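Input sequence (87 aa), recorded before submission:
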Amino acid sequence: MARLQAVGVLLRVTHFPDLISSRAVGEGTPADWALECARSCRVVYDWAKPGDDIDEGFLREHGALPVDQALRGAYRLARVLNDLFDN
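Predicted structure, token format:
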């Protein structure tokens, strides 16, 4: 559990403090998380067209979503690893 708490502290010091304030981030199953991610990331198809460069400019304009998803993924991976290795 200490490892998961360390990830939570790391995430709280980012630009997304509300992410960890909700316990819902770590709840559910990997299948639930995949469905949530797929739903929230559909807008990417409006932002990036085939052949577009995903560069720093893109991330400055649309960076909140990829950063949010990366943070959620890190937190959830920590939960899965804790579940695997703490038992």
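Checked by second reader. Residues 64-85 form the longest helix (22 residues).
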